[in-house]
Amino acid sequence: MRGLFTSLLVAGLSLAGLWQTAAQTAGAPGREVRIVVLGDSLSAGYQLPAADAFPARLQAALKARGQAVQVDNAGVSGDTSTGGLERLDWSVGEGTDAVILELGGNDALRGIDPAITRRNLEAIIERLKARRIPILLAGMLAPPNMGAAYAEAFNPIFPELAAKYGLILDPFFLEGVMTVAGMTLPDGMHPNARGVGVMVERILPKVEDLIAQARSSGG
Fold first, then answer.
1. Is 7 among the residues known to form the active site?
2. pLDDT confidence of 24, banded at 50, 70, 90?
3. Cα 46 from chain centroid (whole Å)
4. I need a surface site. Which of 25, 133, 137, 194 has the fewest CB within 10 A?
5. Is 41 a catalytic residue?
């Protein structure tokens, strides 16, 4: 009888320990994930205080939701997909767990051949994939003044690359901001602080999916 009681007591303590560990794991935010936003002026925070730039606002919003994250601003105003590819290795350094890839808008503004944009973005994606870095691809649409033929070649780049490589896709990075009154700077193109807030709030669920991928893959 004493042996049976001892066995039951040990089993009970073991289960209690497992339950406690599971509860702690469920409530923990997990290890810190380092996200690099590789982009142009739209994410760099053009004419905004550093604290209002997209990466800073995104980091603050994620931390408010209990996420342990560091979001680095690797945005360069005026950068094209070619520039992003050329600086990829030093912009996305060692220790990067995930990337938000936001390039292509300047390609469209300059009328760069969409085939070049596609090739550059694909090269960036493949190099990040080789490093096992999960990617959120921020989509862009061609300006209406570029014409229908250009839009037909440019706009599918982002959904097609996301489908080909299994990426998380944000179809249009400026959704809810572009052409919406009070959301942009006087140039009508770049988000103001209010616009950045809208962008962050809208993209948060996708970024949390990206964080989950980074943690599950080991980053």
1. no
2. very low
3. 18
4. 25
5. yes
